[in-house]
């Protein structure tokens, strides 16, 4: 008997230790983690993050937001870098998206937000309402009104939904949960121009794509745009729960005293881990290496799988990769784990790869060999 709600389908394996990019279970078996804890441990189990957390926990691990917290200022500065944004800290991607929705509505005085089919923004009511997937909302009654859903990469479908009440357009630049669908550059440029023409805020959900995952600190930097609002979480503190919303400084007055808050947001431990993570990732050479590793992984995957008739497509950006297939996903995940490789799924027919950004060429070779074997065996 379990004392837990059964809202997760758990595999009968428990990881109890980690070394670098490997997970170790209760029986001492080692697994190469090509999931990064669902895009969370972007640096693997990094010694610098661990060291900084140990130092912080020995001093103090929480203070309320009624007092100064210089760690929050340090992390905010590392997050915004050369951009003119202000930051609100919370605890998850869903909370960051809730904050973005509230900020957009309060700033514009409008309510309608255009999102996209097959998007995913979280499971709280506002974030769930922004999500363009019916299965996420099933059984929970009425969602928050004033959300509509355009077709991804189709600018005309966006134009058809704009009204005088449109406050914002909200999207992921790579739709992760529904199958690694990458936004086209022409579409994003048109979308940004459309927002400027109609005085609509552009919200980019970088919960999964951010913090170096695509070879840039944020994925929007590949598209030569500057969103009004950006949300971040997952990899931001390399495994310690945290979320952040970045909004242009011109919006900052809207979140005045008492308008929004979070008891645990910007917690000392979360900020310590986030600071260590960003200090590592913001290095230009580190991000260049991520791009090189991405090219290497894509090249080796295409070479290993190009003649497999069960592979439909290999796509993605950086180290966020989807392998579309007509094979049974659960069987592929189980076989990979039996071969010592942890992988994910996305949508109905995509294997999702989110390896740590610290992955080595040797580990890339190891993973590609396993993937080739399990696709050939199936």
TrEMBL record:
Its required cofactor(s), as named, are:
pyridoxal 5'-phosphate
Q: Name one GO cellular component term.
A: cytoplasm
Q: Which residues of the sequence carry a binding annotation for pyridoxal 5'-phosphate?
A: 93-94, 120, 205-208, 263
Q: Which UniProt keywords apply?
A: Amino-acid biosynthesis, Aminotransferase, Arginine biosynthesis, Cytoplasm, Pyridoxal phosphate, Transferase
Record PTM N6-(pyridoxal phosphate)lysine, positions in chain:
234
Describe the reaction catalysed, as an equation: N(2)-acetyl-L-ornithine + 2-oxoglutarate = N-acetyl-L-glutamate 5-semialdehyde + L-glutamate
Family annotation (PROSITE patterns) = AA_TRANSFER_CLASS_3 (PS00600)
The record's section on Gene3D superfamilies has: Aspartate Aminotransferase, domain 1, Type I PLP-dependent aspartate aminotransferase-like (Major domain)
Residues bound to N(2)-acetyl-L-ornithine are: 123, 262
Question: Tell me, what is one Gene Ontology molecular-function annotation carried by this entry?
Answer: pyridoxal phosphate binding
E.C. number, please? 2.6.1.11
Please give one Pfam family short name.
Answer: Aminotran_3
Main localization (coarse): cytoplasm
Which CDD domains did the record assign? OAT_like (cd00610)
Q: Which top EC class applies here?
A: transferase
For this chain's record, the cofactor binding note is: Binds 1 pyridoxal phosphate per subunit.
Q: Where in the cell is it found?
A: Cytoplasm
Q: What else is known?
A: May also have succinyldiaminopimelate aminotransferase activity, thus carrying out the corresponding step in lysine biosynthesis.
- State the oligomer form and interacting partners: Homodimer.
NCBIfam families (UniProt xref) = argD (TIGR00707), PRK01278.1 (NF002325), PRK02936.1 (NF002797), PRK04260.1 (NF003273)
Instruction: Enumerate the PANTHER family for this protein.
Output: ACETYLORNITHINE AMINOTRANSFERASE, MITOCHONDRIAL, AMINOTRANSFERASE CLASS III
Q: Which family does it belong to?
A: Belongs to the class-III pyridoxal-phosphate-dependent aminotransferase family. ArgD subfamily.
**Which named protein is this?**
Acetylornithine aminotransferase
Organism (species): Staphylococcus warneri
């Amino acid at each position: 008997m379990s004392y837990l709600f059964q809202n997760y389908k758990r595999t009968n394996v428990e990881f109890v230790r980690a070394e670098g990019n490997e997970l170790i279970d209760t029986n001492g078996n080692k697994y190469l983690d090509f999931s990064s804890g669902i895009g969370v441990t972007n640096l693997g189990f990094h010694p610098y993050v661990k060291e900084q957390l140990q130092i912080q926990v020995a001093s103090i691990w929480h203070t309320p937001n009624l007092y100064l917290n210089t760690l929050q200022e340090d992390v905010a500065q590392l997050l915004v870098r050369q951009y003119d944004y202000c930051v609100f800290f919370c605890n998850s991607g869903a909370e960051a998206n809730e904050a973005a929705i509230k900020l957009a509505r309060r700033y514009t005085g409008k309510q309608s937000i255009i999102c996209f089919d097959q998007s995913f923004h979280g499971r709280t009511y506002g974030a769930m309402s922004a999500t363009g997937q019916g299965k996420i909302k099933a059984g929970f009654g009425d969602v928050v009104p004033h959300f509509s859903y355009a077709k991804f990469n189709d600018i005309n479908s966006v134009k058809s939904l704009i009204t005088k009440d449109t406050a914002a357009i909200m999207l992921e630049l790579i739709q992760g949960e529904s199958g690694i669908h990458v936004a086209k550059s022409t579409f994003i440029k048109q979308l940004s121009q459309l927002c400027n023409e109609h005085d609509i805020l552009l919200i980019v959900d970088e919960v999964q794509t951010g913090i170096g995952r695509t070879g840039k600190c944020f994925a929007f930097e590949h598209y030569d745009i500057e969103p009004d609002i950006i949300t971040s979480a997952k990899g931001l503190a390399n495994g310690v729960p945290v979320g952040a919303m970045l909004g242009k400084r011109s919006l900052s007055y809207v979140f005045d005293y008492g308008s929004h808050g979070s008891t645990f947001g910007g917690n000392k431990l979360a900020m310590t881990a986030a600071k260590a993570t960003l200090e590592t990732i913001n290095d230009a050479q580190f991000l260049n290496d991520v791009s090189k590793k991405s090219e290497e992984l894509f090249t080796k995957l295409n070479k290993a799988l190009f003649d497999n008739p069960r592979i439909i497509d290999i796509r993605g950006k950086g180290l966020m990769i989807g392998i579309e297939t007509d094979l049974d996903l659960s069987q592929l995940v189980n076989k990979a784990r039996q071969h010592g490789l942890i992988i994910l799924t996305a949508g109905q027919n995509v294997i999702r790869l989110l390896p740590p950004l610290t992955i080595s060429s040797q580990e890339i070779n190891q993973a590609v060999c396993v993937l080739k074997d399990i696709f050939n065996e199936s």
